[in-house]
Design brief:
Blueprint: E1 2-3, E2 22-25, H1 27-36, E3 41-44, H2 51-62, H3 73-81
Parallel strand pairs: 1-2, 2-3
Length: 103
């Protein structure tokens, strides 16, 4: 998981099901996440969310060679602008996800 703020719901099923969890976050986010006790390996990437550092950590320390990223427009825009995405899969839906009224 990736979170710049570290403001997470410790009761979310994500943290309590499946295998090992890793949270990539900022220095401040790491302090918040550790205080929540979410049961994940919390990795601080510095004062700001650094996608280069995140991908380097996943590659060098976790052996990740391919990564699928699911996220909102901000996450995908950052990865595309930094030329860190080599493939894009676009899903068309009958609603605008960015619309505040979207479910």
């Amino acid at each position: 998981a990736v979170s710049g703020s570290g403001e997470l719901d410790p009761a979310a099923r994500f943290w309590h099901t499946g295998g090992e969890k890793v949270l990539l976050t900022t220095d401040d986010g790491a302090r918040r996440a550790r205080a929540l006790g979410i049961g994940a390996d919390v990795v601080s990437l510095g004062p700001a969310l650094d996608w280069h550092a995140a991908l380097e950590h996943l590659h060098d320390r976790r052996g990740v060679r391919r990564l699928m990223v699911e996220g909102g427009g901000s996450v995908h825009t950052q990865l595309l602008q930094q030329e860190l995405a080599d493939e894009l899969q676009l899903v068309l839906a009958p609603l605008l996800v960015g619309d505040p009224a979207a479910p």
